[in-house]
Design brief:
Helix content: over 70%
Order of helices and strands: HHHHHHHHHHHHHHHH
Radius of gyration: 20 Å
Largest sheet: none
Number of helices: 16
Structural class: mainly alpha
Shape: globular
Strand content: under 5%
Distance between the termini: 26 Å
Number of strands: 0
Length: 344
């Protein structure tokens, strides 16, 4: 009998989290940076889709009640903690509240755009985007779930094309610089959530596993070619995409390589551990990155600035491993607590 918990999803989340940490160290627009950013956040949406259960919701109200607790409240709590840390530490306070970064500026980005800026926890935009993406997926499944394959494909194609061109609407918005609450990012993310949902439902990874050793390197090459080799900057958060025929296949090839590798390594407990606490580690990773960068500067005298002043890709990889190890240690007390509570 198969375990109710899909350990390959935990392992894949662990892999993706490491790519997030690594990607947030690499200098902007280097080839490796562009490649990681072409699929690492789409992978998180895809994996969320693999655990998405639309059938458990009677309607939108049930969904909102459930996901407000799981996504919206964590967004608010993490943002408040990040804001508090930036207010307490003088260096962070000076950086976060420069003349252009007024209280109004921060409230606008936190409450309206759904992406805290200059507060070292900007990555929590993912929670708001996931809230909307799963809601859109729920509605899509209700409308198209029983329709033909052709209707499903055309509707997703229209959604994908709309998502990659959403920035063209921004200059005409009556209020703000972009859509509020990460609704614009959620459009593209919905495609990945739905893909993850059907991947689990039709056991796609299980069917592809016999061909994994062939598909993984091929998928890596295709992801690389359709991402940084053909185009430049891709960032789902800021709605920077290449054309839909290139962005989505490139992202899906990267996701395929990652998830098939996770399927082969599903028994690795370390990566399972990382995946189970990926939200906590994801929320804290920027602060931990900067704390270690400050420590490195104090010991060596060399100034590090993630995504800007970094010695090179190899150094970033080693530094990412150090940040990742620190994150694993940070969540260990919570892991021990949960384990003891389960045994009691």
């Amino acid at each position: 009998m198969q375990s109710s918990r899909r350990t390959e999803i935990d392992v894949a989340k662990g892999f993706t989290l490491f790519l997030v940490v690594f990607g947030h160290l690499l200098p902007l627009n280097t080839t490796l940076f562009r490649w990681i950013f072409s699929f690492h956040m789409p992978a998180f949406f895809f994996l969320s889709g693999m655990t998405f259960r639309p059938e458990k919701y009677n309607g939108v109200r049930d969904y909102v009640q459930d996901k407000a607790r799981k996504l919206l409240i964590p967004y608010a709590v993490i943002t408040l903690i990040g804001l508090a840390i930036c207010l307490i530490r003088p260096a962070y306070r000076a950086e976060a509240f420069q003349p252009d970064y007024t209280l109004y500026y921060h409230l606008k980005w936190i409450l309206y755009y759904g992406q805290p800026m200059q507060l070292y926890i900007g990555q929590v935009w993912f929670l708001l985007a996931l809230f909307w993406a799963e809601l859109f997926s729920l509605l899509w499944i209700r409308v198209f779930g029983q329709r033909s394959v052709l209707a499903k494909c055309y509707s997703l194609l229209i959604l994908a094309v709309a998502a990659v061109h959403i920035r063209s609407l921004f200059p005409y918005l009556p209020i703000g610089e972009r859509l509020p609450w990460k609704l614009d990012t959620a459009l593209g993310a919905t495609v990945f959530v739905i893909a993850g949902y059907y991947t689990r439902r039709y056991e796609v990874l299980e069917r592809l596993k016999p061909y994994a050793l062939f598909l993984i390197p091929v998928s890596i090459w295709c992801s690389y070619y359709l991402g940084p080799e053909m185009y430049t900057y891709i960032n789902v958060c800021d709605c920077f995409y290449t054309a839909a025929p290139y962005f989505y296949p490139g992202a899906f090839f990267g996701i395929l390589a990652l998830t098939l590798t996770a399927r082969l390594m599903r028994g690795w407990r370390f990566w399972q551990y990382c995946g189970r606490y990926s939200m906590l580690m994801f929320a804290a990773h920027t602060f931990v990155t900067y704390w270690l960068a400050e420590a490195y500067t104090a010991f060596t005298g060399t100034v590090l600035k993630p995504m800007e002043l970094m010695p090179g890709d190899k150094f970033c990889l080693v530094f990412a491993a150090a940040v990742f190890a620190a994150l694993c240690v940070m969540v260990l007390p919570w892991h021990v607590y949960k384990k003891q509570r389960a045994l009691s």
